[in-house]
Amino acid sequence: MEIKTNHSLKEHNTLAVDCHCDQFAEIRSLSDLEALPRDIKITEMLIMGSGSNILFTEDLHRFVVHFKERNHITVVDNLVVAWAGTNWHDLVTWAVDHNLGGIENLALIPGLVGAAPFQNIGAYGTELQDCLVWVEVYNWHTGLYHRLSNEECMFSYRHSIFKYHDQPWIISRIALDLRPDNPINISYAPLQEYFASSKTTPTYKQVADAVSTIRAGKLPDPNKLPNAGSFFKNPIIEPQQIKRIQRRHKDLPLFETKHCKQQKTSAAWLLEQCGFKGHREGDAGFYDQHALILVNHGKATGQDLLKMTKMAKRAVKMKFGIELEEEVRVL
User: Among 50, 158, 173, 215, which one carries the catalytic annotation?
Assistant: First the structure.
């Protein structure tokens, strides 16, 4: 394993922000993990994969551990076990090709497997926590591996213990309970519309293909237009907030949550009402087909993009009284 200094991260983040880190190491295997220096402080380490969920705003005075994409998927004790460097969508494709259900609604989500539990990724009525059994982590201070159960991961909406912990952990593998008899979930409106004319229950592969088609129609290809997917979380709001907003905005979109009194609304809708769909200042802007997607039209800096997100947050707060929360990590 080679450790590089003053390394550019432009090719390692999908917003194509040009910045540098103090030290950089590429991880391809467990032996690379085990070769990492053990004296690096937690605050001085950044673990990343494809960089599809990060906005860099300045140079990083950190040791960056970058997982090089390498697919490795096995079945152990009837669980599907995947290496952290495995491409997430490739894992979904592998599962549906083997007629194993549970993650088909998460098709085409960018990134690597190791980032999935960190974010508790979710889409179209499914979250990773619904089928995850354990997460294996490597402690670079002790050189030991440890497994966390689903419960120990403390999952919630776009949240997990990995976002707020003081342990020197690097996610190395995950195990999923994927089965040929898991129920099909097409409860979300876009999927219901997609399969409206179908007289039979779709297969896992058909659901994954539908999700991929829908997502591809909404989201720009980061290789053509740099972006980090959905920049903000969909806000969860209280009944009193809903009533207040609906007095002026009766078309406020609402979705059920696991908490019976709270409901979720669309961050994209809020931003669009504030005029941010397609809004652009210099090379920083929001996608003209989806207001939730922050894009870099060319040479926007991290500060340019950050300024745009702050402007959007202020506008939504003033108009609706809702505080948007970033889904993308801002560093």
Answer: 158
Residue 111: what residue type? Answer: G
Give strand pairing partners of 144. 139
C-alpha 268, offset from chain centre:
16
Let me know if 158 is a catalytic residue: yes
What fold does the segment set 69-218 form as a domain?
3.30.465
> Is the CATH number 3.30.43.10 carried by domain 3-67?
yes
Residues spanned by CATH 3.30.43.10 within the chain? 3-67
Which fold does the domain 227-330 belong to in CATH? 3.90.78
Residue range 82-127, pLDDT digits in tens: 999 999 999 999 999 999 999 999 999 988 999 999 889 988 889 9
Catalytic residue of the set 104, 127, 136, 327: 327
DSSP assignment of 36-91 = S-TT--GGGEEEESS-TTEE--S-EEEEEEEEPP---EEEETTEEEEETTSBHHHH
Q: What's the Rg (C-alpha) of the chain? A: 20
